[in-house]
User: What shape does this take?
Amino acid sequence: MKKVGIYIDGDRVLLAKVAKKNFSITKLQTISIDGTKNLKKLYKHLFAKKNLVAGLDLSDVIIEKIKFPVDNPKAIKKGISFQEMQDSNFYKNRSVSVFLFRKNQKEVQVVKTTKEKIENICLRLERFHIYPRYLSSVSNALVRFFNAYATGYTDGIIFHFGAKKISCVLVLDNAIDSFHEITFGTEVLRYVKNYVEFLNNEKETREEKPLLQLRQQLTYVYFSFLQRAKTEKLNILLLGDLKHVENARPFLFSDLTNKIASFIDIPNNISKMHAIPIGLAIDSLVQDENSVQFFQNDSVPKKQVRKFALKVIGAAALCLCVNLLMFAMKNEYFKKWENKLYSHLEMIQKKDSELMERQYVSNKENGLETNLENFEATLTNENRPFVFPIGTKDAKHVLLWLNNNYLNKNCSLEKFHYQLESFPTIENLKKNYAAKVNVQLKFLNHESALEFQKKLQQDHFINKKMPFQVDCEGVFVTFSFTPRS
Assistant: This one.
């Protein structure tokens, strides 16, 4: 995943494309926004519009700290929900708050802004047809940059020199503690070439020299941050457009010679000028408990929501059109091949019928057809026994059993019906054979019929596990049974 941080610094746009893996920077760009050609250049380099990340300036946000009397994360989260509801009621739903919850700490940071500030930056970016999906803050971006590239440091002061303002952030334990914005930028430093000469003339018209005022403000911010950190010295990280700052550094920090612990160095391959867009991209990539996202629910501008909705509708319409086109092409394609297949089958069928007709004529001429018909008629008229052995008694065995055991002068066979009810098939080759036999016998008197009925109950030829039924009416005995296998 990759994110593109974007930051407007004076009359230029700073872009940084950062990958999530090791926060590697894949592309940096600085574009002047004066003139149509440069704007076209800007559009060309917005290579991932859906992953754009912007940030609110320090003057557009405030940070508050809330201390809870408990260190239970669940209780603190409930307290945060209550505080968020209170803020919403107090500011009449015009404020947007982000709560930064740090584990194992009772203190929670609240980063606040207003919906007007969000709308203002969105309108400013909208002039260049830039619609970010993620809105963080410059202070958070600078801390992300500090944590990513100032290895070995957990505390320090960040001075980011922009074209028209200097962003000052105090970092304690790798988190934001406080920040301040100075309304001087690098434009003031461009016009002074010899700082040594300027320093010698410092006593003349002290209040009228903006450089002296800038030095005073940097000194004031540094000492106020020292007081908040409750320490004697702090490290300083200089970021931003440092082309003129490096030469002016001895002059700007001359009042802090013995108070600065050290100036933090970062790798040379990391652009200090693009620190804010790099930090914005990292903040969007990390997405942890210290991330700031001001686009929440109704805080997203309506125009951006409508634009996104139109994109979704357009994409859905395009997908529908593509599906319909593919469906029509598929039907036409399959219909074409179906017609070819049918014509091919008809041709094969026609050839087969012609071949069979020729063979029939040839066989008839040779007398083979007549001999075959005569042989078929012979087989039809013959009544031969079933050639394959079956797994039960056949009709011949049943008749033989009746004749040997029961048929005599006093008994005659009136009806006999033999039927195979179960036998193996192609679908079930393991199915057993089972036959059902219906028999009716006639006796000379009723006593003989009753005596036969008793004998029949004890006969082992009959399978008693299968259905067995005997009816005696006068001299007639009717019974149905299944013979043993």
In short: Residues 395-481 form one domain.
